[in-house]
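Troubleshooting log. The previous structure file for this entry was overwritten by mistake, so regenerating from the original sequence record. Sequence copied from the archived sheet and checked twice against the printout by T.R.
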Amino acid sequence: MITLEELNALPAPEFVLRLAGIFEHSPWVAQRVAAARPFDSRQTLLEAMRTAVEEATPEEQLALIRIHPTLGLRGRARENLTVASSSEQRGAGLEGCAPDEAARLEKLNAAYVEKFAMPFILAVRGHTPQSIITACEGRLLNDGSSERRAALREIGLIAGYRLADTVSETGK
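Regenerated output below.
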């Protein structure tokens, strides 16, 4: 963990490197806010990063969405998960979910990708396999525009959790 004060003082390339994983495989988000330092709070930094995503081109936003992993991957497919994604999914019980839940989630993920051409994204902290399944079932009823906004909103939530795990407000 690094303090916000230490983060603000880093040269821009190191600042970006420290925050590269806040938005999955997308260091460009940190690059776009580096010049706005110093940030007076972690929340201000998070809001700046979320704004960078909101102001990104539709193509950049879609690329950010599509770089996210499928929820509930099994076996060798899990090897490509980032440490953060793996930890988040494990915390939601996706690694050890029942075979019927895993099969249901796999079918829902496939239906979601077929309908929206992007992965189902959910900030899974505080979720269980069943609540993730329920959320996916509900969101499959949405239209493409609504789902794109929902995916970006969930990515923003994930970023908030990851930033809190990475940057402390003070040296405590």
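The chain has two domains: 2-63+163-168, 69-159. Archived copy saved in two places this time.
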